[in-house]
Every structure is written in structure tokens, then in C-alpha cells.
Amino acid sequence: SLSLSLSFSLPPLYAASLHSLVFLYPLAHIFSIPLSYPLSPVPASCIGYYMYIETSFPRSKGQVARLSSPAYSTSVVGCEVTFWYHMYGSSTGALNVYVKDTLSGRNFTIWKKSGNQGNKWLKASARIANVTGSFFIIFEGVVGSSFTGDLAIDDIVFSKSCCGRNPCGEALADFQTSWNGFTQSTTDGFDWSRNSGSTSSIATGPSTDHTLGTSKGYYLYIETSGTRPAGSKAQIMSPVYREASPACTFTFWYHMYGSSIGVLNVYIKQGSTMKLAFNIIGNQGNKWFSSGKLAVGIASQFQVVFEGI
């Protein structure tokens, strides 16, 4: 099976509403959205929302819950994230904040705090560094020794300097909740599928997606078992992206595992013309790989076409 997830350089986004955050692999449990207490820091209101981790039974010491932001554009000098946190209770664990570089897949710690900080909201800020492309912010809550260790976050804001000029004008396609505007070709032999967990065939395909790294995350793949003859092609096309500058690049992650893997071709499509941007053949092993930054090289509207053979 061939599988993929994709990202472009990203549009400017200055603030993160907690309702827009996506859940990231809940090793203990996900952050929850409760009402009223503790009061939301800005403004103080008994009907405000925030995110928190519940540390009561059956949670155990050291378990973690992670929450990921949407993807943001390339970080520049002076880029900071500001947020409020509430860590109250005699057995409060830890709150860690990471920046994840979408190109390398690496996490970097940018802020951390542990233990009881009192029954009040506190403000924190952290500089975002060590990223070479678009990035996520990940909040990680760690369960303490007992149930009196709930911790919460609220009002996450990114500085304007985080959001440089976007040369492509489109956001991440991670396929977690939808097809992200991608459409099946009508001139190929079969279709791509959207899936989570393992594929239906043994000894091929991923068991987790790349975005979340869990069996709950989604990715796109082609199913090659059954009556599918050798050489059959499946194409899926991105939305039409706006005019690109010379700086426009895109990156995707691919998984090609199995003894009879075929070919993955990636094209830049302008009108009826398709230019090959990436090609790889055969079994690459049971893991996800980055394509690296690929230049679009077109100063007009374009689409990206993924072809599995």
C-alpha cells in the first residue's frame, strides 16, 4: 500500500481559538472542555471555556495527554506564543509545551512547568525557534501522583511575527477530519481511500498515520489487493492553489511498505500540463518518510497530483 499526508507553506494565523485545536494522541486521555471553574482568565466569566486534563481514577502517575494546534507558517525571528495556565492541587504533575517542525518531524521543548502553582491563572510566553518550515505547538499535560492534579490552559495567542508572507496561500492537508479538498481523478483505473489504523492487507501499509502517530489518525492510501492488475493507476488531485511565488514549496510524508510495492509519482499540474516533481519505486520499509521541500516552480494557479501505481 502507498500512503501519504501533505503540507504546504501556510497562511498567516495570529491566534489559536481553543475550539479550533485538534486532539493529538491521547496516551492517557484527551484534554477536555469543561465549564465555569476555574474561571477563564480573559475575561473572568463563569460561562467561559478552557481545556484541562482530568487526573482522577483511572489515570495513573506519568500518563500524558497531548493537544496540538493547527499548523502555522514558517517561524521568523521574534515569533512567540502566549497562553494562560492553571495548575492547582497538591499532586499536580507537569505541563510541557513543544514546537513540532513539520519538515523534520522533530519536537523541541519551548516551555515547561511542574507542581502546584496555586489556585489562579498565570500567564506564560515562549519563543518559537529551531524550526525550518511550518510548525505545530503541542501542549502536553502529565498526570501527577493523585487526583488533586488537574491542570488547564486557555487563551493561546501567537505574535504577528510568527506569520511571515505565505508564498503558496494554502494550509496543511492532514486528512484527519476530511479529504481536505482533494478529489479523485475520473480518468484513472481506481481510487485512493482514506483510512485510520492498519490497512486490510497483511505485511503492507502503515499501522498509524504520520500526523498523530496513532491508529486513530487518518491518511490516504491505495489498496492493491484483490483483482487489481499490475500497472493500474490511481490519481488524487489537490484543490487549485493560487499563484505561487518562486519561494513556494510543498512537503509530504509517504509510506511504501510491502514486497510488491509499485510506484509513487507526484506531479505539478497547470492546466492540462503535468510536470513530474517526485518519483519513488519499490519497498521503502515499514515507516513514514519525508519528501523534503519540493519546489512548485510555477507562477500561476496549480494543483498537485499524487499517482499510485
Give a structural overview.
The protein is 0% helix and 38% strand. 39% of the residues are buried. The protein contains no helices and 21 strands. It is mainly beta. A hairpin with a 2-residue loop joins β17 (263-270) and β18. Mean pLDDT is 78; it is low at 7-45. It has strands at residues 2-8, 15-16, 22-24, 51-53, 64-68, 80-87, 94-101, 107-114, 122-127, 135-142, 151-158, 183-184, 193-196, 218-222, 234-237, 249-256, 263-270, 273-281, 289-290, 294-295, 303-308. Strands 1, 13, 14, 16, 19 and 20 form a 6-stranded antiparallel beta sheet that branches. Strands 2, 4, 6, 9 and 11 form a 5-stranded antiparallel beta sheet that branches.
The helix-strand sequence is EEEEEEEEEEEEEEEEEEEEE
Helical coverage, percent range: under 10%
Mean pLDDT: 78
Counting helices, strands and paired strands, the structural category is mainly beta
Number of helices, where a helix is a run of at least 4 consecutive DSSP H or I residues: 0
Residue stretches low in confidence (pLDDT < 50, at least 5 long) are 7-45
Span of the ends, CA to CA: 10 Å
Radius of gyration: 21 Å
Strand content: 35-45%
Number of β-strand runs: 21
Describe the largest sheet.
Answer: 6 strands, antiparallel
What is the 3D form? globular
